[in-house]
Amino acid sequence: MKATIVTLPGDGIGVEVVAEGVKVLQAVAEKYNHTFTFEKHLLGACAIDATGMPLPDETLTACQQAGAVLLGAVGDPKYDDPSLPVRPEFGLMALRKELELYANLRPVHVYSALLDASPLRPELTKGVDLLVVRELTGGIYFGQRREATDKDLTAYDTMVYISDEVRRIAHLAFQLARQRRSHVTSVDKANILASSRLWRRIVTEVAEEYPDVTFETLLVDAATMHLLRRPSDFDVIVTTNLFGDILSDEASMLAGSMGLLPSASLGAGSFGLYEPIHGAGYDITGKGIANPLATILSVAMLLRHSLKLEEEAAAIEQAVETALKQGYRTADISGPATTTVGTEQMGDAVIAALAP
After folding, report:
1. Is 189 assigned a catalytic role?
2. Does domain 118-255 fall into CATH 3.40.50.920?
3. For residues 177 and 212, what is the distance between their CA atoms, to the nearest angstrom?
4. Distance separating alpha carbons of residues 287 and 314, to the nearest angstrom
């Protein structure tokens, strides 16, 4: 296979972890006789610094023409002031919108070798294997808003959903559940929010088209509790943009670290944008200690969803599990009787496990 992959290392540790993701893709290409061409472009704070825009036109065009996109992270402390008119995060949100990527998939898998890495007891996290399906282009992040001013300290954000947005993400969630354990949990706040009442109504209607899939609804406050009380009961969680953002970060602690969780942002076709769920990590940038496994697992999702290379994707996931069983750990997941390694060394360990 031949494919062009755009890389957007972005900011902070994004540059370091994307480098390891590219290394793994190159190893896969060599092992399975594929040809991957890489194009690197700017997004986020580095793009603002270079061009004044968080999403330059050149970057958007390159992404539109690629087979898939591998992203690192965006963000910089100098742009943390929320009142700034241009911020790194705006580039990522605009990219998702322009590419019509409406579904964000965030799998959470607890590896047996890392049962002690989670702050939860091992008997709670054992067997956890869930998928958060987050609606990505609607909701409160894209609704009408007003910023407060010095003269009028009133601000608001509007959570807006239309039925078609809810319907398409619900169908995807049920289709993915059929490939897993056939259980969908829809999370909303229907007891309070009008938009959530529409969400629940539409998802429930869609559920009737999938009689082979077990369906339940949970209020978001109950869902946050049950994710910690009985996480292994969940299979596919489908929810709104805001709730999905929060719940998937909470769920990352089941695995032990945000450095372990990949994600895929998908649209109607095979094209996708793939990224670790963690941020730019400026406190550890340049130290060579960032965990690249979330990015490497995002590479596996890229191969599976965009390039339709299931064997190669599964091989990467198995190589990650092998490296962990061999005791390799970055600092965020290190523990007794393990070997603490840096970013590059962890990437090398995965490639070595992939080689046979």
Report:
1. yes
2. no
3. 10
4. 30
Average confidence score pLDDT of the chain: 95
User: What is d(CA 330, CA 349) in angstroms, rounded to the nearest whole number?
Assistant: 11
**1-102+260-356 has CATH 1.10.8.60 classification:** no
3-class DSSP state of 335: coil
Q: What is the DSSP letter of 181?
A: T
As a whole number, mean pLDDT of residues 265-271 equals 93
| pLDDT tens-digit series, residues 210-255 | 999 999 999 999 999 999 999 999 999 999 999 999 999 899 889 9
Residue 271: partners with Cβ closer than 8 Å, 6 or more residues away: 66, 67, 68, 99, 306
Nearest to 113 by CA among 348, 327, 343: 327
Sequence letter at residue 290: A
The catalytically annotated residue of 11, 76, 235, 245 is 245
Based on the residue annotation, tell me whether 141 is a catalytic residue of this protein: yes
**Domain 1-102+260-356 identical in fold to domain 118-255:** yes
| Of 111, 141, 161, 274, catalytic | 141
CA–CA distances in Å: residue 29 to residues 18, 64, 272, 312: 16, 23, 19, 9
221 belongs to the catalytic site? yes
Question: What would you report as the CA-atom Rg of the chain, rounded to the nearest whole angstrom?
Answer: 20
- Residue spans of the domains in the chain: they are 1-102+260-356, 118-255
Catalytic residue, candidates 80, 116, 164, 221: 221
Query: Pairing mode, if any, of strands 156-157 and 68-73?
Result: unpaired
Q: What is the pLDDT of residues 25-84, one digit of tens each?
A: 999 999 999 999 999 999 999 999 999 999 999 999 999 999 999 999 999 999 988 888
- Cα–Cα dist 134/162, whole Å: 15
Q: Return d(Cα 63, Cα 273) in angstroms, integer.
A: 9
Tell me how long the chain is.
356
In this prediction the pTM is 0.93
Which residue is catalytic, options 126, 233, 249, 282? Answer: 249
Q: Buried b / exposed e across 279-296, counting CB within 10 Å, b at 16+?
A: bbbbebbeeebbbbbbbb
Residue type, 301: M
Contact 185, 217 (CB under 8 A): yes
